[in-house]
Specification:
Layout: H1 2-9, H2 17-24, H3 60-72, H4 83-95, E1 101-107, H5 119-123, E2 127-133, H6 140-153, E3 157-160, H7 168-178, H8 181-188, E4 196-202, H9 208-216, E5 234-238, E6 242-246, H10 258-266, H11 277-290, H12 295-303, H13 312-323, H14 328-340
Helix pairs in contact: 11-12, 11-13, 11-14, 13-14
């Protein structure tokens, strides 16, 4: 039994509740190593349930980020680069030259992980508005932390909810205001004024098309709650003074930061075929257990099963037996779906780095 527990959880758990649980679960995979992190135990309240320890301090986000790095190391790399993205990237870089202002949309739950590493180079000195979409999916504390962080970076940031339209009118006014100088220069040259051109860019499924549809108050751009729906560049007009360029989601050809890739998978910002649902759900369980505002109690209350043992994989297997006749895939999808629907509360999976790092998170 000691050998089996070592293979499952990454280190020996002699005669613990976790090892007893492993013996009770049939057909448990013996190759996945998720647990351990940089330390062999969780930090925090030593009285919490059977190994998962609730983090008590905000400073423990640093430890969570470090542990996430170790949890992802043994897993198959998450990579997703559909064929249309390469073509889109080339076309987009050409269109960006025509933009008066660029609106970069990120997922408010993971603002750093939805930052394209080449975006700054593409935009150069072009005016930019940063939109953190899905503000309804994070807490007020998370929102305030990110607002303060980007304000210190000198980045114009706007929070929005593309589904309900919150922030969209403010976005149109801000885009016009930032690009007002365009027509001043045109008049000085004796040219007629034209509509402000605003390009909307960002990762797949962060809500770019939904924002445009809400602005126009009609469905002009295809939108669905999955990545890869928009596949071509499309110009749409908003009144007489503003034009938007809706673009497909762009993502790096190779994702070097696998901790970020797992967060993309958790938040459904990357194609499902690129990752193992069970692996991702297991890591999400471990993350939720350590996030101060969630902890083990939220998992226990939601599924009515004890959170015992250090391994998120074990929790997935327990849930599979409890609700899905042992089907770990269904159990994993339920956990991910519940997180995406806010069943554990609205939370961010990232907190701002120290202010001496750039807003693009490159120093992470």
């Amino acid at each position: 039994m000691t050998s089996l527990s070592s293979q499952v959880c990454g280190y020996i758990l002699p005669q613990s509740p976790c090892t007893r649980l492993i013996a009770e679960i049939p057909n448990l995979e013996k190759t996945l190593q998720i647990v351990g992190g940089k330390n062999s135990t969780w930090h925090g309240n030593s009285n919490s349930n059977g190994g998962f320890e609730d983090y008590q301090e905000e400073s423990d986000w640093v430890d969570l980020d470090a542990d996430l790095y170790y949890w992802t190391k043994p897993l198959r790399p998450v990579q997703w680069y559909p064929g249309h993205i390469a073509k889109t990237e080339k076309e987009l870089k050409e269109q960006l030259k025509l933009m008066d202002v660029v609106i970069e949309v990120r997922d408010a739950r993971i603002p750093l992980s939805t930052t394209h590493p080449q975006m700054d180079a593409w935009l150069g000195n072009r005016k930019r508005i940063l939109v953190l979409n899905r503000e309804d999916m994070i807490s007020t504390a998370d929102r305030n932390a990110w607002a303060t962080y980007f304000a210190k970076q000198g980045t114009k940031v706007l929070f929005s909810n593309g589904q309900l339209g919150m922030g969209t009118m403010k976005l149109s006014r801000l885009a016009k205001a930032m690009a007002a100088g365009v027509n001043v220069k045109r008049r000085a040259k004796g040219l007629l004024p034209r509509a402000v051109r605003a390009g909307i860019v960002g990762y797949p499924n962060v809500g770019k098309s939904s924002l445009i549809n809400r602005l126009l108050k009609r469905r002009m751009c295809p939108a669905a709650p999955r990545p890869g729906v928009t596949r071509v560049l499309k110009w749409v007009r908003f009144g007489k003074d503003l034009e938007f360029l809706d673009s497909p989601g762009i993502i790096p050809m190779r994702i070097s930061d696998q901790a970020a890739a797992i967060k993309l998978a958790i938040c459904d910002d990357i194609g499902e075929k690129s990752y193992d649902v069970t692996d991702v759900a297991a890591i999400l369980v471990q993350m939720l257990a350590k996030i101060p505002t969630v902890g083990t109690s939220a998992l226990r209350n939601r599924y009515k099963i004890d959170v015992d043992g250090n391994c998120g994989k074990i929790f997935v297997q327990k849930l599979a037996l409890h609700l899905f006749n042992g089907d770990a895939h269904q159990a994993s999808f339920r956990i991910l779906s519940d997180f995406r629907k806010g069943k554990f509360g609205w939370i961010s999976l990232e907190r701002p780095p120290s202010t001496d790092q750039g807003a693009d998170g490159a120093a992470r």
